[in-house]
Amino acid sequence: MVDFTASPRTPTDGSFVDSAHGDKLSLLTGVFGPNASGKTNLLKALSFVSFFIHGSYKHLEPEEEIPVDRFACSEPDEEPATFELEFEGKGRRFLYSLSVTPQKVNEEILKRYLPETGQFRQILVRKFAKDGSLHLRSFEEFTEVQLLRKALTDRPNASMLAAGVQAGRKEFQHVLDSLGQVATNVGRRGKRDLPAEGLTTDIFRCSEFFHKHPEHHDALRELLTAADIGIVDFKIEPVRLQTEKDDARESFLVFFQHSGPKGIFSLPAHQESSGTRRLFMLFEAFIRVLTSGDIAAIDEMESDLHPHLIPTILSLFTDPEINKKEAQLFFTCHHVEMLNHLQKEQIYLVEKREDCVSEAFRLDSLRGVRREENFFANYNSGRYGAIPEPEVVAF
């Protein structure tokens, strides 16, 4: 379980905000631990649920399997994967639970929080009986059941929330607006790596975004010049792209301007270092999230970046003048010195047991951890666990 809430006694700084229902929420959450301990799986779970709720009805064909993987040691094979997500937005709070196999949804339940009782109450339930029949029930007249049933006919692989939105029902759109979007570099197979060479559709997409939004140029320029002392500016130029069908379309490409011995010269994105390209693409994702107030789930955030840049990236989310809509950053990281840039309520440690089951725990759940202690030094000393213990290999 990952919990973004903190005790009301947590010292207030720019990395915590108060929710509409009285909780204290962290805008930053970092996940640390050895390689292959299961860190990415925490992000994959959030990424999958977000995709399933938002896009399963539109992006999955009726006979297509649900892109979900269960624990490799699950017994029996039919044992479903289960998820539960509590979220708040637009002044509303919901609890969503899902039981699913690659073939179908076993159970899907949506609950709404009632401030007057302090409890969640069911408003929509979907279940499949053993004979395969669909049981669908709406409470408090949340929606038209017959319309939703029609939308879900022959769609055991789609979320009832996604189906409701596709049917044009505003009550479902309100739920999805409360959840928001998840911007992530994690897919079913884990982290989506940046190609080592060449241009990608993502580079053109990011270039097009910054062409349309010049109001973000100053912030991008400041970040790029801080990351690379050779970069002094950038330009976004129109280009023509040749498609597979042998026709062309207009696009845009970023060119980074450098100061050299003979003056200023420009390099297109594909001739830049992987670190500069990754920073450019990462910042585009963050700008979208900061503008909308959503959540970014980034695996190996330090990849291709110097450790000294990470605090600058974190400050995008902790500066209230920048993060006006209280967007959140949920990330994994191997630069453990970053532990001292987070509060104990913002640090998750993950370790894998001998039976291949991963356990995630928040640092403040350990007894005796003080707020003012050196998390980096104590982690390296093994005090908290979740640290690699490699054996010496003889050659």
Automatic annotation (TrEMBL):
Top-rank taxon: Bacteria
Keywords, sorted A to Z: ATP-binding, Nucleotide-binding
Gene Ontology molecular-function annotations: ATP binding; ATP hydrolysis activity
Signal peptide: none
Mitochondrion among keywords: no
InterPro entries: ATPase_AAA_core, P-loop_NTPase
Cross-referenced SUPFAM superfamilies: P-loop containing nucleoside triphosphate hydrolases
Pfam families, sorted: AAA_21
Domain named ATPase AAA-type core: residues: 28-121, 242-337
Name this protein carries in UniProt: ATP-binding protein
Organism: Puniceicoccus vermicola
Top-level taxonomy: Bacteria, Pseudomonadati, Verrucomicrobiota, Opitutia, Puniceicoccales
